[in-house]
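Quick start: load a record and inspect it. Here is TIM protein:
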Amino acid sequence: QDWEQRQEEDTLLIERILLLVRNVLHVPPDPTEEQGVDGDASVHDRVLWALHISGMDDLLKFLASAQVEQQWALHVLEIISLMFRDQSPEELAAVGQGSVGAEHGEDTRELETLRQRELAEKKARALQRPSRHSRFGGSYVLQGLKSIGDRDVVFHKGLHNLKSYSHDLGKEPQRVPRRRQA
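Running the structure step on this input writes:
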């Protein structure tokens, strides 16, 4: 329900549920009762798993992030701090890095081998090429554009210069004496 439609009883029920979750998580661990195998989940971890399976963690995330539910922020903050009670920040940070770090190292090695191979191919291509550059860019026949006579124009420059082609290309402009200039 939206907070506008909630009755006083609903608000008290929500607060009681949050306090119940907080109190369950607040129970201190008892090492004499928990005599499990190494790597076995503790009672606290099993309670957290049960909260996750029931969807309570999603509700807590909603209460923590919803603007209209700010009245429960301190309860949710306390519950979240109790969820991480037995964890050290170093352990939490290392949980996501274990497999990612190994994958990152593998990816780095793979990229390095690809880079070395690419550099070797580049060197091989450079050695196959002659060292002198030929200035000859090729000759092209421009069909549909007539030169002197009935033949097509032969263009001796690179194709990138074709857009700036004119029949006057390379011709010296005729000089007009200064007194005859307009």
